[in-house]
Design a protein that fits this description.
Length: 449
């Protein structure tokens, strides 16, 4: 099929690239002139595992193209994926200005009826507004647009693999024809009949993927309900960690045993600095706001949010206790991205740590495998080092903020020799406390004192 993708951010690019890989013809557009020029020249504006490879193979096969001209992109596809940003407003509500803008563009630029697919994360009932805008602004042409909600469940860092090998595909529709079209778009992925770039050409064995057909309101709700539940799980694990510290238990032992119960599951129970990124914090707020607008008080989510905000304070209590005075101390910060395997620093707990250290007058020596240039632009007062051992040189403390493998596998004997003082405050519970202490480190982590 011929597909259009509006918005070339994480979601749009991964969606466009994967659907091209699955055999469709894809045309992508964005309002960012530089981004489109970069893509047209064969560049990849974000770091996402496998994305460069599949964008290149789609480009050389003539399956993907980019244009700054939204009208051209809109007319070029039978179905249009809306993948624009829905950032948070001051009050937590999702800002849907970009969605509204694209809806009006589609209504006025299209010459034939299109399937309009809402891929961006939006609050429930946005589909209804989208349909209203499409109808209102296409009054002259009288085109009958169909609206679909198709939320994404991609994790940054594994987004390509998540797209091509999903646990479920959720499709909210108003009519049978839209469900049929969506099944056709996802057929190669449902049947695993594409050359899998993630696994050297062959899809790994696995269960059949289900495509769940729901109403549009349900599909929209599924997305917010899923993200919020995962965030809730993390905050729960973090409170358990606080309890473990007071009681003298080990949070890793507790959450491991909890996770063996299939009703609970082992994922998203990692205690530490808490959740960040451009999804969980904003989705949680938007969901609480949405619930409030219909008179439902989502108290447990508000508590999850509060617990998450307190993680940085809890971390700093540990830093202050260990370092005593922070001012003028040399502090190595290991990790800037909001999680491993991404260059994304949006709402990163690591940046809160850098900000607070600088505020307290520390000399920050930061390192990250992918996120240095982005962080440098925000906090030029810190020094940045590609090599983690350079960041650790002469440091009086090392603060672990992101769970990159390169930090997990650091040679702490070597690091200890470089550091001015053997002190590690680990915000991601990466190391064994007994091993670190055996190496002569004062070591603090979450839920394992
Ligand atoms: C999240 C969801 O996992 C995706 O399913 C969803 O599609 C995406 O949001 C989205 O809405 O676009 P992502 O934000 O990429 O994906 O990151 P996650 O891997 O979910 O991690 C979120 C945050 O939680 C990170 O800061 C991570 O360090 C933290 N986390 C995760 C914990 O603190 N503990 C855990 O046990 C797991």
């Amino acid at each position: 099929m011929r597909l259009s993708v509006v918005g070339c951010g994480y979601v749009g690019l991964v969606t466009g690239a994967c659907l091209a890989e699955a055999g469709h013809e894809v045309i992508c557009t964005d309002i960012d002139e530089q981004r489109i020029a970069h893509l047209q020249a064969g560049g990849v504006p974000i770091y996402e595992h496998h994305l460069d490879k599949i964008l290149e193979s789609a480009r050389s096969a003539g399956k993907i193209s980019y244009t700054l001209n939204a009208g051209e992109a809109i007319r070029g596809g039978d179905a249009i994926f809306i993948c624009v940003g829905t950032p948070p407003k001051e009050n937590g509500e999702a800002d849907l200005t970009a969605i509204d803008h694209v809806a009006r563009q589609i209504a006025t630029e299209a010459r034939t009826a299109k399937l309009v697919i809402e891929k961006s994360t939006v609050p429930a009932r946005t589909g209804l507004e989208l349909r209203r805008a499409l109808t209102a602004y296409s009054r002259n042409s009288g085109l009958a647009f169909r609206v679909v909600s198709n939320p994404e469940f991609l994790r940054e860092g594994t987004a390509v693999s998540d797209f091509l090998h999903p646990d479920r595909i959720v499709v909210g529709v108003e009519d049978e024809a839209s469900a049929r079209d969506m099944r056709e778009i996802y057929r190669p992925i449902l049947e695993r009949s594409f050359r899998c770039p993630v696994h050297n050409g062959t899809c790994p064995p696995g269960n059949a993927v289900s495509l769940l057909i729901t109403t549009i309101n349900s599909a929209e709700l599924i997305k917010h309900a899923s993200n919020s539940f995962l965030a809730l799980k993390i905050s729960y694990a973090n409170v358990i960690a606080d309890l473990c510290e007071k009681i003298g238990a080990d949070v890793e032992e507790v959450t491991h045993a909890m996770g063996l119960d299939p009703r609970i599951g082992e994922q998203f129970l990692r205690a530490g600095l808490g959740f960040g990124g451009f999804c969980f914090p904003k989705d949680l707020q938007a969901f609480v706001h949405l619930a409030g607008t219909v008179g439902v008080d989502f108290d447990i989510l508000k508590a999850a949010e509060r617990v998450n905000k307190q993680r940085i304070e809890r971390f700093f209590e540990k830093v202050r206790r260990a370092l005593w005075v922070v001012k003028d101390k040399r502090v190595a910060v290991l990790g800037l991205a909001f999680k491993a395997n991404t260059d994304d620093i949006r709402f990163s707990p690591a940046l809160e740590v850098v900000k607070e250290l600088l505020r307290q007058g520390a000399q920050v020596q930061a390192t990250d495998p992918e996120a240095i240039s982005r962080a440098q632009a925000l906090f030029p007062a810190a020094s940045y080092h590609e090599d983690p051992y350079d960041a650790l040189r002469d440091a009086e403390a090392a603060l672990v903020c992101t769970e990159w493998d390169i930090f997990r596998n650091l040679d702490w004997e070597r690091a200890g020799q470089l550091m001015a003082r053997r002190l590690v405050v680990d915000g991601r519970n990466l190391y064994s406390p007994s091993r670190m202490r055996a190496l002569g480190f004062e070591y603090h982590s979450f839920g394992r004192e």
